[in-house]
Amino acid sequence: MKILMVCLGNICRSPLAEGILQHKAQQAGLDWTVDSAGTNGYHVGEAPHRLSQKVALLNGVDISQQRARRFSGADFAQYDKIYAMAVDVVDEMKGLAKQHFQAGKVDLLMNELHPGRDLDVPDPWYGTEPGYHEVYKMIDEACDRIIAQYTSNNQ
Ligand code: 4NP
């Protein structure tokens, strides 16, 4: 499986999603490729936000080596599944990918936990540390669900 996590800046939410799912896949013995990208280019080349790094490390996940990159339509050829952190992210992905957009590969990450409800992972960018802990917990639970569903369908 090749999975891409997408948010706006690729410095707060999707780096957490990449790190968490990669960590869980490794623990489950799954040889998955997990990556992340952002729809805006403001932070390309930067490491994840210091609070995303801090909260991840408190949970045993090191995301310090990640660097932000911009999402592009070419990602649809590379990945089996693309999870967007929020509805506005899906809109931005459509604008960037144009004819390359494949709706069948895209879902909101929170729909893994709450199917069909189209809930966002809130953007912690303007907030304080508790917001990053809340976002970590939401992403962590969704990633648990992804692994559980995959392993029950492929045993
Ligand atoms: P993220 O948060 O999408 O979770 O990485 C953001 C970080 C930066 C910006 C927007 C969202 N920004 O516009 O700079």
Features:
155 residues; Rossmann fold; four-stranded parallel sheet; single chain; alpha/beta; 12% strand
Notes on the structure:
The chain has 155 residues and is of the alpha/beta class. The chain has one domain: Response regulator (Rossmann fold), CATH 3.40.50. It is built from 5 helices and 4 strands; from the N terminus they run βαβααβαβα. Strands 2-1-3-4 form a 4-stranded parallel β-sheet. The radius of gyration is 14 Å and the shape is globular. The two termini are 15 Å apart. The relative contact order is 0.21. The mean pLDDT is 97. Bound molecules: 4-nitrophenyl phosphate. 4-nitrophenyl phosphate binds next to loops.
SSE diagram, text form:
Elements: E1 2-7, H1 13-27, E2 33-38, H2 50-58, H3 75-78, E3 81-84, H4 87-97, E4 106-108, H5 129-153
Parallel strand pairs: 1-2, 1-3, 3-4
The protein binds 4-nitrophenyl phosphate.
**CATH domain class name:** Alpha Beta
Main beta-sheet annotation = 4 strands, parallel
Shape: globular
Helix content range: 40-55%
Radius of gyration: 14 Å
* Terminal Cα span: 15 Å
- Please report the total strand number as a whole number: 4
What's the short story on this structure?
The chain contains five helices and four strands, in the order E-H-E-H-H-E-H-E-H. It is of the alpha/beta class. The two termini are 15 Å apart.
